[in-house]
Amino acid sequence: xxxxxxxxxxxxxxxxxxxxxxxxxxxxxxxxxxxxxxxxxxxxxxxxxxxxxxxxxxxxxxxxxxxxxxxxxxxxxxxxxxxxxxxxxxxxxxxxxxxxxxxxxxxxxxxxxxxxxxxxxxxxxxxxxxxxxxxxxxxxxxxxxxxxxxxxxxxxxxxxxxxxxxxxxxxxxxxxxxxxxxxxxxxxxxxxxxxxxxxxxxxxxxx
Length: 207
Hints:
It contains 7 helices and no strands. It has one domain. The chain is an all-alpha fold. It is elongated.
């Protein structure tokens, strides 16, 4: 008894809507890079964030182990943790300013003519620069007072200016990043159009 050979069509998955961006499909050339080129590498903020996050994780994990096995804790590490969390917020804010990821109302920042969007972007960067320049300048007096009066931390008695000295340093760094962003936005001639072009192209691919 002969059996007829049957052939079945290959199983295929339906195509997904929109552009496919994975390891099998390279990034299209019309999509801009994630970070704009800067004179000071953005990897500085990235690596500092990684180091601070790792230090916080190690301190917390060590506290858990000591508390579990010895019924005590590293209470003196609390001021280190607080300092590292403040530094994490400041360093991450510096990277956000450099990448132009600060909070804004897109209804105003992404509407209107290109000249209007450019002026708003420069105005926002200028306000950030002025704010953190003021914070850095005022915090210098606090650092000087901590050093002059020999203030110490309540936890382990370290000089308080060892911690407070980083506030003006990072504040001035954020101000410089904002100035750099303002300069780049002044030179850019297609501000706000790349995002709209990408959105329109993705809608066309989905249709």
